[in-house]
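User: Last request for today: this protein with fe (iii) ion, please.
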Amino acid sequence: MAKIIAGIGSSHVPAIGAALDNGKTEEPYWKRVFSGFEKSKEWMAKTKPDVAIVVYNDHASAFSVEMIPTFALGCAAEFPPADEGWGPRPVPVVKGHPALAAHIAQSVILDEFDLTIVNKMEVDHGLTVPMNLLFGQPKDAWPCPVIPLAVNVVMYPPPTGHRCYMLGKALRRAVESYPEDLKVVIFGTGGLSHQISGPRAGLINSKWDKSFLDNLSKDPKKLTRIPHLEYMREAGAEGIEMVMWLIMRGALDDKVDEVYRFYTVPASNTAVGHIILENRHKAANKDKRAHAAKSRQAAARKAAHRIASKGR
Ligand code: DHB
Ligand code: FE
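Assistant: Here's the final one, the structure of the complex with fe (iii) ion:
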């Protein structure tokens, strides 16, 4: 059975991608940002997922304002990087997992979440920047296949936080009904507080962001009750991207272990937030296995003792 073992929350600021692509990672401004992801890259290299589901938003790259699906699942075999105005980013083509994606589409849609099925799509900074932050800068290929899930947060009305959280739960049911043993991680990307244009451009609300991260770990249901207007007021117009983190959180256990967190301001005009949450059943299974091994050893000792005493 496939299993979601962990969730990763990460900002997807495009300037981070530009810093990587233009060799600026050692500049002090950028070093501060990238150093926060060193441990995460180690964690990812150790975790070695078989598949990553990346929840992100398209910024009018693949979908123009003519047509914007609320939830779009990438079912293709590959997703080339989009040209966002400066040519496509020099990152590997993202390989999909069509078999698991088709299974997720079937399971989630029959579970009454009407996803849009996308068989051809380019992916923008919303997906490629978090990939770099967690997987580094591979030259030829990303280390695992990716199923993109694009969410509309660019044109009113975006989905509610509660809807996103419930979609996460449906995604988990979908993954767990896939027969192959696969280790799956899920990314929620975007945010944290930021506003790109208008009189409040540059708005950052660290206090609100940090409380969002605290609740994401400990009390995500509380976050599902935040209305759109509160995101807009407290976290800026583009802060609404944070609802995507609730899809990731909904796909995890109610109680999780926060294994890593990083927060810094600013990068470009934006707060950068990052969190890694692990499901506890991973640890519980390990305990169960250790317990079973101990019982087997005890039974073997007893049997050996019985045979030895018979012989006497
Ligand atoms: C910017 C754009 C984004 O999509 C985002 O999530 C954060 C920042 C920007 O243009 O600075
Ligand atoms: Fe964005």
